[in-house]
Amino acid sequence: MHRAMHQPSAGSGQELALYLHIPFCQSKCRYCDFNSFAGLSGLIPAYVDALVREILIWGRICGARPARTIYFGGGTPSLMAPAQIRTLSKSLRAGFAIAPDAEVSIEVNPSSTTREDLNEQRQMGINRVSIGVQSFQEATLRLLGRPHSAADTEYTYHVAREAGFDNINLDLLFGLPFQTLPDWKTTLQHAVALSPDHLSLYPLTLDDATPLGKAVLTGTV
């Protein structure tokens, strides 16, 4: 579950929002200070097993309370095999009273998501996709260390629509090095032209320990 959970009062019946953190990535973005790790995807099976145990433990502690939203975040949850996501979904339904109309979201990166993955995710009940776009400008993507292109993003978006997702979010960053107001306007126009159902817009916050943060501190960027 998310970084820390405080034990709720058992039997209160209050609805929960469940967040599952999947801390694995293909590569670490230059600005990222999240709890995520590149090159350790071999640990995913053991992590899934541990997360299943934790879900069931918290289900007992919470008294199988109802949950209306589930969010697979990261890291890059789409690095998991569909069977692993299905295992986690099954354990969530065993531990909690998941609402029939629950919103179930998964974060995906354009560089690690296939048509087959999206089709299977939709079939297993995931009904919302959040695509990590950050920018539609190639130079900015390279500066951030993103392993995808703007074309990859568009492809992933259209494939998600074809898979049946009618709730798609695009994540975008602003306040980036060298980014002008016209640059940001262009990115927004590009995003809106795709007709997503939601936009998440975040200002870049740099940690001094990240590669990009160090570059700013030394004046390289």
Structural write-up:
The structure is a single chain. This protein is of the alpha/beta class and 221 residues long. It contains 7 helices and 8 strands, in the order E-E-E-H-E-H-E-H-E-H-H-E-H-E-H. Helix 1 (44-62) packs parallel to helix 2 (82-95).
Can you summarize this structure?
The protein has 221 residues and is of the alpha/beta class. Helix content is 37%, strand content 24%. The strands form 2 sheets. The protein has a 6-stranded parallel beta sheet. A two-stranded parallel ribbon has the order 2-3.
Main sheet: strand order = 1-4-5-6-7-8
Approximately how much beta-strand content do the residues carry? 15-25%
Distance between the termini: 36 Å
User: What is the 3D shape?
Assistant: globular
Percent of residues in helices comes to 25-40%
Give the total of beta strands: 8
- Spans of at least 5 consecutive residues whose pLDDT stays below 50 are 1-11
Average pLDDT score: 91
Element order: H for helix, E for strand: EEEHEHEHEHHEHEH
CA-based gyration radius = 18 Å
Structural class: alpha/beta
Q: Determine the number of helices (DSSP H or I, runs of at least 4 residues).
A: 7
Biggest beta-sheet profile: 6 strands, parallel
